[in-house]
């Protein structure tokens, strides 16, 4: 069996399966040495010094410096604190690799010796504890390691490599902001985009490559329910917005159960509801905050449209005047479409990883919820970019029963296997995408 692994000086190199495994062993050895000599300390730095979404000032400076030192052309300040690094290496595809940089307003209680003690004033002016409670420190460290390995293997690939450090993923705005700031026009537009997320509930050393849906869409929706104020002892003189809002909450549950294809997933969660001031006062306003999740564009639009339909219908049924019907506002910033992998490209990457790393290392994809990722924007249909988003295990198998969820103050990742596996997945995935088909 032979496999094309790259192009150099216009010539294709075909190597035997035996030679491919030898090359894999060399890559693994190089990654291990890099982790011992540099990446372990870099991960420790990122973990101890997290920064919140939109405030990744020092984080982006450090990431840019690390990648610039490897010979890449680096531009800072793209879409906020985003960075873009480019390495041109002859004719061939353009492949973009992404890591996100921001941390969360969570007080770390992991008990780790390098636990974050950072506090930072967020973009709304409130001081918050800060923690890498979602593994973005792993992603950045792996991006630097991937940059080093691909720079050292320029004879094995031909094309243009683009690396990005993305801000504000946790507020699902960073990818959109980078695109709006010319990511696909000021810099080489990718043919392929590749990224990964470390996952605390998956065994370290393993990789999952979704073939279609990787993550759900997410939309934040604010609903203002108006009423007519009155005395609590005279409800007939007003229109009670608490009652109206309560009926809206119940009726919204019919959206998923009765208005979309039963074989499609969807969620409409009312996460917050606020209204009223005192026991015996019927107020005139209730504020609701919703999150909406879906796995395709059609279901997403159906659920969002249904919220307005139900809110207005319930309000009318309770006698709310036409000029006081509920206001339904879908956020223009806290929104991301579903992350849909390009299936033929995902198949290529999964096959390459299984061939190079063995079937045991590439496990079937399984989902445990409807989380969202703004990586989705890079592969949105209007861009014509073939995108693949992977998952890398972050917890030793023996510790999986007690693994804390993402965004938990107890969250922790085994950094060495997670970073090493992330680098392997990104390097081998990129080499597969650079190979001419």
Total helix count?
8
Strand-and-helix sequence, N→C? EEHHEEEEEHEHEEEEEHEEEHEEHEH
Q: Strand order, main sheet: write it out.
A: 3-4-8-5-9-19-10
User: Average pLDDT across residues?
Assistant: 94
Structural class: alpha+beta
What would the principal axes of the Cα set say about the shape? elongated
Number of β-strand runs: 19
Please give the share of residues in helix: 25-40%
pLDDT below 50 for ≥5 consecutive residues: which ranges?
1-18
Proportion of residues in β-strands: 25-35%
Largest sheet: 7 strands, mixed
Radius of gyration: 24 Å
Our measurement of the CA-to-CA distance between the termini, rounded to an integer number of angstroms, reads 16 Å
Essential attributes:
alpha+beta; 4-stranded antiparallel β-sheet; disordered N terminus; 437 residues; 7-stranded mixed β-sheet; 8 helices; single chain
């Amino acid at each position: 069996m032979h496999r094309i692994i790259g192009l150099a000086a216009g010539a294709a190199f075909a190597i035997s399966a035996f030679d491919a495994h030898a090359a894999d062993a060399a890559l693994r050895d190089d990654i291990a040495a890099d982790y011992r000599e540099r990446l372990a300390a870099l991960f420790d730095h990122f973990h101890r010094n997290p920064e919140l979404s939109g405030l990744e000032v020092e984080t982006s400076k450090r990431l840019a410096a690390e990648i610039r030192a490897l010979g890449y052309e680096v531009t800072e300040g793209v879409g906020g604190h985003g960075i873009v690094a480019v390495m041109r290496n002859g004719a061939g595809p353009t492949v973009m690799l992404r890591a996100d940089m921001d941390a969360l307003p969570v007080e770390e209680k992991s008990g780790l010796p390098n636990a974050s003690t950072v506090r930072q004033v967020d973009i709304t002016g409130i001081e918050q504890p800060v923690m890498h409670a979602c593994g973005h420190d792993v992603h950045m460290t792996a991006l630097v390691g991937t940059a080093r390995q691909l720079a050292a293997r320029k004879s094995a690939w031909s094309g243009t490599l683009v690396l990005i450090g993305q801000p504000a993923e946790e507020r699902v705005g960073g990818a959109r902001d980078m695109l709006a700031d010319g990511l696909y026009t000021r810099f080489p537009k990718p043919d392929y985009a590749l990224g990964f997320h470390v996952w605390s509930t998956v065994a370290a050393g393993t990789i999952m490559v979704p073939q279609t849906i990787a993550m759900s869409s997410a939309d934040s929706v604010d609903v203002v329910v108006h009423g007519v104020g009155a005395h609590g002892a005279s409800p007939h003189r007003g229109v009670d917005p608490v009652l109206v809002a309560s009926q809206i909450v119940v009726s919204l549950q019919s959206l998923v159960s009765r208005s979309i294809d039963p074989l499609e997933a969807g969620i409409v969660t009312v996460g917050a509801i606020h209204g009223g001031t005192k026991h015996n006062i019927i107020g005139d306003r209730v504020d609701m905050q919703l999150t909406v999740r879906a796995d395709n564009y059609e279901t997403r639009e159906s659920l969002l449209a249904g919220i307005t339909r139900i809110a207005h219908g319930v309000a009318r049924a309770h006698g709310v005047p036409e000029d006081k019907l509920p206001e339904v506002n879908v956020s223009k910033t806290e929104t991301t479409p579903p992350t849909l992998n390009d299936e033929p490209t995902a198949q290529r990457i999964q096959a390459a990883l299984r061939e190079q790393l063995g079937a045991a290392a590439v496990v079937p994809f399984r989902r445990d919820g409807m989380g969202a990722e703004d990586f989705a924007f890079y592969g949105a249909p209007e861009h014509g970019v073939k995108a693949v988003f992977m998952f890398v295990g972050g917890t030793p198998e023996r510790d999986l029963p007690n693994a804390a969820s993402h965004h938990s103050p107890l969250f922790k990742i085994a950094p060495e296997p997670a970073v090493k596996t992330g680098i392997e997945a990104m390097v081998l995935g990129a080499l597969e995408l650079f190979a001419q088909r």
